[in-house]
Design brief:
heterotrimer, A mainly alpha (337), B alpha/beta (485), C alpha/beta (393), A: 337 residues, mainly alpha, ABC transporter involved in vitamin B12 uptake, BtuC, two-stranded antiparallel sheet, 2 strands, globular, B: 485 residues, alpha/beta, Rossmann fold, 2 domains, 39% helix, 24% strand, elongated
Chain lengths: 337, 485, 393
């Protein structure tokens, strides 16, 4: 019996708990991508950098709070700094929209042009980050590091295996739940949210209903900036803030958005967790899990790993390709909010 | 010259022309104006022998010509042009002109063979005549152009030219100015005046353009609801209270798209078409595919910019307003396709319809649910999951949520079963009875004209026929061309 | 009188065979990248030797030596090659003190130094592959090959009674070479390697890598990586998940930044760093302190590398690598007067006078084979949040 528990604890420690946190981060990222797609009808390649730049603002604000001696008890100070970062990111996104995207909107540019433009924006943001905070990694997580340490867990339960739960993991999941609930409440319950859904569903009809497109676009950017900043900050807290890592995150985030059905917020969240857990389950080595579960004589010599961890990002690609082949519209076949 | 005595023309129960008496003095240019459906075209058709009158008679120079077929009238020097030019599009302008006088020797096979000299002589005479007409009308530059390639206005000039080929005494012009740009209209006006003063032609013309009428016509006869309302100079008519109320107030009134010219990209689809509607009235736009019906709706709702013409709502020019702003002015539009938010529930669709309203929408929503009870039942279901007919109800309901003064529907019955169509029409009538003006484009022309207070038949972006729905239904020409008999 | 003047002038000319000039030496180190916390002190060490030579006035008829810094990035071969190219063609350096990491060292050696005929002495490239590489006699290193480090690591592990380890290495020439050497030596001594897996630098998250390592198990995790990037994050992630609680840290992982970043959890982990208990190391400590920098990892090797370049040039009487490359082994090894840090002036004078020197320097330089350090290592124990040296071998 304890063998089974030990096996479960290993899975929980290395796959399920990190997967929940990583999945939440991807889901929030994908939600931002999907939002832009649903309203502005293009794939925003600058989203990864938007996350990075939002996180950068949060870090700067965190430093400010820390130097002023303000903390958040056992929780990371960055959570207090989050509103400041979100605000700065919103300003940046709105300025970008005004300076860049609006021009192309007036030109009624096609999606491909938008996409290339967003790549350009990505590089500008990238340079901005390099300029302001530099390319190095920044550690800004403070507060209590663990809720349960692996060793404490072992002592507590008497099991061989430990389960560590980091504060940042819990903060990530809780913040993600609150954020997603807020987004859904906004989209489904408020007049403005409904008007966004209407605009994304049928732009022409939305215009006929007197919905102001500029306002919808503005709100879409505000939400995108907020979501990107929250997702980026959670990722940075949980893992590490390296400005250029967010560029790599773009692939799993887009995979999540597309797998779930681009433009569909529920799909984005489901897609985030699908991608996160597939990456972890496929690259996890099950040697000790299997060893606990089978008789000693059958214990495996190899790692029992489907794919080397080097191919972690390839997993996103493979899932993306499979979904596009089997159900091109994604799991939740969406086009609109 | 022409005297009309107590003329009536009834189509079934509809009195298109009702006991009209008027006279047209020789050498005059008489204008015939009136709101759409006033019976002007019907009156023309009766005078020109296309319809036999129900009662009354028509005298030409004292002779009773009532009921004479068109070719007999033609022989007596009486001609009628049509709202839509009837040219032979594959012949040149010159050839078109030379074909006008009938009874030519060359038309008889025997003569063509046996008396070639005579045929040749006649042809030479005709050619001279045609050249003279071309000269008179100053259309030299297009004389050898195929008539099909002419612009709308040039075709109207060609129509005039055809009347000159037979030295007509009196010419009836049906909306000669429709779909013609201002410059060409002036040229046409000049030609009419010169034909009148130099050649002694008598004209009688139906026209909507008041400026054109004022410049050319004296006297002006105003018709309304099948009867003559007033006669006088243009200025007198314009000052007449009754006329203002019945006609000017009407065209200028609720919603009218005047002389709209527009299209997509470089090509115009509408070439000066005029469509209007009154409160509590159902106006239906019908016509063959590609006639520009939907385009006209889009133009009137501001989804398509006008190149010429204007849109008036309650007398105010709203041509420059965006669709959203027109929504605010009380216009509602139901597009032909994609007319619901498929991912949103029925209730949310209605809510979005009322987006511009800041007040309580519960009452309006209840009214819509009363009108379409099925929607109340399915209010929590995404609109995308409803049947075609139910979707149309959602679409109409959504547009009604703004409490519009005018509701525009683009083919509301496209793709629904006949039973559903009848039900939808019933609902539309109900909506109209609440005092809302309804303007709709319909593919199912017969059924739509049946419920229409007025009907517009569009052909190639121009008004071909305008009358009450019933009159159009009864008009054999309309039936033959557009309603499948 | 006139004749006397002529003679004086002529003898003056003969006495100074070379005009006093400014000799430039490139300092090609990864000022950005995964060992960026180490390189400033390394560069300072090398520059200290150069300053010493200049100040002595005895270098090649009073010539000065000045350093030119360039960024090898440690990991980006293309960037390092471009930097080396610039050093040689645009700055006109006569020799290169560098590069630091094995991969970029190999790249710059093959692509630039050999093509241009400029000698390189690396203070820290430890890949075994460099031992047998064709180098036209232009490459030397004051660091030992990792073949030797692997041996030392294996012995240390066995002596601590650790019977099985998991190894993760940074995916480049240095990491792979070291990891393979450790595995080979450790298994030869009877130890078990449960997994020998690579990790990439520059990722944001190494939890998947750590998960795989933890499943393979082992008493200790050997992290053949870099302390400022992947290596640090793997250790952090291992500690967070309880996958491993003690680590073996080879030379790339030794630096003050690591215990400072990880905190007390790292106490008890052990490591190796090239180093000796010869008096030279202590001397350099004092000199560095006086000059305002720390004698950190590879600082001594950097000082020695620069000193060797300078002495070889002096011995050859030329800044042309094709002639001074022959002299490097000569000045580094016996016979001759033993030279310690701070004695460069003395050495230069001996060489100018036609004498022989045996450079010991700060890291007990003894070049073997094709010109690499025989290798003495310091045993490091992390204790109280600091790297402490507990012995040498």
């Amino acid at each position: 019996m304890s063998d089974v528990l030990n096996a479960l604890v290993i899975l929980a420690n290395f796959v399920i708990v990190p997967g929940l946190a990583y999945g939440s981060q991807l889901a929030l990222g994908a939600l931002g991508v999907t939002l832009v797609y649903a309203v502005l009808r293009f794939s925003n390649f600058a989203h990864g950098e938007t996350m990075a730049i939002g996180t950068m603002f949060v870090i700067l604000a965190t430093w400010g709070l820390q130097s002023a001696g303000i903390g958040f008890g056992p929780l990371p100070t960055a959570l207090l700094a989050l509103p400041v970062g979100i605000f700065a990111a919103i300003i940046l996104c709105l300025v970008t929209d005004r300076l860049v995207y609006r021009y192309y909107r007036r030109q009624k540019a096609s999606g491909v042009i938008y996409l290339i433009v967003s790549v350009g924006v990505m590089f500008v943001y990238n340079g901005l980050i390099r300029f302001v905070i530099g390319p190095r990694d920044q550690v800004f997580a403070d507060g209590q590091r663990f809720i349960i340490k692996a060793r404490e867990f072992k002592n507590m339960t008497g099991l061989n295996e430990g389960l560590a739960i980091k504060t940042t993991q819990v903060v990530t999941v809780v913040t993600a739940i609150i954020t997603v609930a807020a987004v859904f409440w906004f989209l489904n319950r408020t007049r403005t949210g409904k008007s966004m859904r209407a605009f994304s569903d049928n732009e022409d009809l939305a215009l006929l209903s007197g919905i102001n497109p500029d306002r919808v676009v503005m709100i879409a950017w505000i939400m995108t900036a907020a979501l990107a900043t929250i997702a980026g900050t959670l990722y940075g807290l949980d893992k590490s803030f390296k400005p250029f890592v967010y560029l790599q995150l773009l692939l799993p985030i887009f995979a999540a958005a597309i797998v779930g059905g681009v433009g569909n917020p529920i799909g984005a969240i489901a897609g985030g967790f699908v991608i996160a857990f597939s990456e972890l389950f496929v690259t996890f080595a099950y040697k000790r899990v299997v060893t606990y579960l089978v008789p000693e004589s059958m214990a495996p010599d190899t790692l029992v790993q489907f794919l080397s961890t080097d191919y972690k990002f390839a997993v996103s690609f493979v899932i993306l390709v499979i979904v596009l082949l089997v159900k091109p519209t994604g799991i939740f076949s969406g086009k609109s909010l | 010259m022409i005297v009309v005595e107590n003329l009536s023309k009834h189509f079934g129960g509809i009195k298109a022309v009702d006991n009209v008496s008027l006279s047209i003095a020789p050498g005059s240019i008489t204008g015939l104006i009136g709101p759409n459906g006033a019976g002007k075209t019907t009156l023309f058709n009766v005078i020109a022998g296309l319809h036999a009158p129900t009662s009354g008679r028509v005298l030409l120079d004292g002779q009773d010509i009532t009921g004479l077929p068109p070719h007999e009238l033609f022989a007596r020097g009486m001609l009628r042009t049509f709202q839509i030019a009837h040219e032979f599009s594959t012949l040149t302008v010159r050839e078109n002109l030379m074909l006008v006088p009938g009874g030519q020797s060359g038309e008889r096979l025997m003569d063509a063979w046996l008396r070639p000299a005579r045929v040749r002589a006649e042809e030479a005479a005709l050619r001279r005549k045609a050249d003279e007409v071309i000269e008179f009308l100053q259309i030299n530059q297009v004389a050898d152009e195929l008539a099909g390639n002419l612009s709308g206005g040039q075709k109207k000039l060609l129509e005039l030219g055809r009347t000159m080929m037979v030295d007509a005494k009196i010419v009836f012009l049906d909306e000669v100015g429709a779909g013609v740009n201002r410059t060409l209209l002036r040229t046409i006006g000049d030609a009419i005046q010169r034909l009148n003063s130099e050649r002694g032609y008598t004209f009688c013309m139906i026209e909507h353009d008041m400026e054109f009428i004022s410049r050319l016509c004296d006297p002006v006869i105003v018709m309304a609801e099948g009867a003559v309302l007033a006669t006088g100079t243009a200025a007198e008519v314009r000052a007449n209270e009754e006329v203002i109320e019945a006609y000017l107030g009407c065209v200028m009134s609720f919603l009218v798209g005047e002389e709209m010219v527009c299209g997509y990209g470089g090509a115009d689809i509408l070439h000066g078409c005029t469509i209007g509607v009154e409160p509590g009235e159902i106006a239906v736009v019908v016509g063959p595919n590609g006639a520009g019906k939907s385009t006209a709706m889009k133009a009137m709702f501001g989804m398509l910019g006008l190149r010429e013409g204007r849109v008036l709502l309650e007398g105010e020019d709203i041509s420059r307003l965006k669709p959203q702003e027109r929504v605010l002015r009380g216009m509602g539009f139901v597009p032909q396709t994609n007319n619901v938010f498929t991912s949103m529930t029925v209730e949310e669709n209605l809510e979005m319809g009322a987006f511009i309203r800041r007040d309580d929408i519960a009452t309006t929503m209840r009214q819509v649910f009363d009108l379409f009870p099925i929607l109340h039942e399915k209010r929590a279901q995404p609109a995308g999951e409803l049947s075609g007919g139910q979707r149309q109800q959602v679409a109409v309901g959504r547009a009604l949520m703004t409490q519009p003064k005018i509701l525009m529907l683009d083919e509301p019955t496209a793709g629904v079963s006949p039973i559903v169509m009848d039900e939808l029409f019933d609902r539309i009538i109900e909506v109209a009875q609440t005092g809302i003006a309804i303007l709709m484009v319909e593919q199912n022309a017969k059924q739509a004209l049946n419920i229409a207070d007025r009907g517009y038949v569009l052909v190639q972006g121009r008004n071909a026929y305008t009358d009450t729905g019933a009159a159009l239904m009864a008009d054999p020409e309309v039936r033959r061309a557009f309603l499948g008999g | 009188m006139k004749k006397l003047l002529m003679v004086a002038m002529a003898s003056a000319l003969v006495a100074t065979p070379a005009m006093a000039a400014d000799v430039k030496i490139g300092v090609l180190l990864g000022f950005t990248g995964p060992i960026e916390s180490l390189t400033p002190d390394m560069a300072s060490g090398a520059e200290l030797a150069m300053k010493e030579a200049t100040d002595s006035g005895a270098f090649m008829g009073g010539s000065s030596v000045s350093p030119v810094r360039a960024d090898s990035t440690c990991v980006d071969a293309a960037a390092a090659t471009a930097a080396a190219e610039r050093l040689i063609t645009s700055d006109g350096v006569s020799g290169i003190m560098g590069a630091d990491c094995s991969g970029v060292t190999i790249a710059t050696l093959q692509n630039v130094a050999m093509a241009k005929g400029v000698a390189m002495i690396s203070p820290s490239a430890t890949s075994p592959a460099l031992s047998d590489m064709e180098d036209s006699g232009l490459f030397f290193r004051t660091a030992p090959s990792d073949a030797r480090q692997g041996q030392v690591v294996a012995e240390m592990l066995m002596e601590k009674g650790i019977k099985s380890v998991a190894i993760t290495y940074t995916n480049n020439d240095y990491g792979k070479g070291l990891a393979d050497s450790i595995q080979m030596n450790y298994e030869k001594l009877g130890g078990g390697v449960t997994i020998n897996a690579a990790h990439e630098e520059g990722k944001g998250d190494y939890s998947a890598e750590v998960a795989a390592l933890s499943q393979a198990g082992g008493d200790m995790l050997v992290v053949a990586g870099y302390l400022d990037q992947g290596g640090k994050m793997i250790i952090q992630s291992s500690l967070d998940t309880g996958a491993f609680d003690s680590f073996f840290l080879p030379d790339g992982m030794i630096g003050d930044a690591l215990p400072a970043a990880i905190g007390p959890d790292l106490n008890g982990s052990i490591g190796t760093l090239p180093g000796t208990d010869s008096p030279g190391a202590k001397m350099l400590d004092d000199m560095a302190k006086a000059a305002g920098f720390a004698n950190g990892p590879f600082t001594a090797e950097s000082y020695d590398a620069a000193a060797l370049l300078i002495m070889a040039m002096q011995a050859a009487g030329s800044t042309d690598a094709s002639s001074y490359k022959e002299k490097v082994m000569m000045v580094a090894n016996a016979p001759g007067e033993k030279i310690y840090p701070g004695e460069l002036a003395k050495a230069l004078k001996i060489i100018a006078g036609g004498g022989d020197v045996d450079y010991v320097g700060a890291s007990a330089v003894e070049l073997i084979g094709s010109g690499e350090s025989a290798g003495s290592y310091a045993e490091i124990l992390i204790d109280g949040g600091k790297n402490t040296t507990v012995g040498y071998r």
